[in-house]
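WARN no homologs supplied; continuing
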Amino acid sequence: MQEPEEKKIALELLETEQAYVNRLHLLDQIFYTELMKEAKNGKTVPEDVVKMIFSNISSIYQFHAKFFLPELQKRMEDWNCNPQIGDVIQKLAPFLKMYGEYVKNFDKAVELITVWSEKSPPFQELITDIQKRKVCANLTLQHHMLEPVQRIPRYELLLKDYIRKLPPESPDRGNAEKALDMIFMVAKHSNAAIAEMERLQNLWAVYQRLGLEDDIVDPSNELIKEGPIQKISTRNNSTSEKYLFLFNNMLLYCVPKVIQVGAEFQVHLRMDVDGMKVRELNDTQFPHTFLVSGKQRTLELQARSEEEMSAWIK
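OK structure emitted
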């Protein structure tokens, strides 16, 4: 008897889950536990650094080892009487939101490993020692840590494949499709968390370049465009180098600082986007110029090219 295609995929899910739980065991019970033990002895790095590296890996490990893997195993053993996995995956899906925290922390974790490996030779030695063990299969800690980041997309692919192979009349179709929707939402949730973190990091970097003027620092702002611009002075027919930051609610007209201690720019003027008008100027002496007029004042600006001018106006 040929195994039905959908059963092969369900078995692949079980096998990859088993391998994944082994990987989580390595991360949580070996790397995290041993590094934590050394940190408590005050020999390698501060305890909070180890906690920051491994984020919520313990919760993820416990969930997969104690709940999801046993449920899958039980189901595959009873496959002949109950050939479906959609309901089991539906139980799993809400818990996958835990991954948001781990995924969001991943880049920071890898950076911490690099920084502390240079700072603390004993920390580096312990990691190298664990990596030499057979269980690590010649792979680095960073490589193993990537596994949880890739796990949700893997579920998504396997489940899509499973649904494709299901016979049209299969009783599992409804459940499996619902499970796929749930996993898709979780993946989106995790990607949205990363995007939001990146947005806030970029915003913070901009505020630092502006010298953290407290009336500008606001986490809800969105940076739309920034770049150098020439300010045209009609009085003496000359231009001077300025820099613009355009946010969703304001335009900051800045002067680059000559001595860059702390801030990179000095804010000369804030213009509200509300009620602002922008139009192109046909000036033969100064090409690519445009006029920005707001409640506060009007600026005559020159871009470096036609494309740049259009981008600013847009």
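The chain is about 55% helix and 15% strand.
OK
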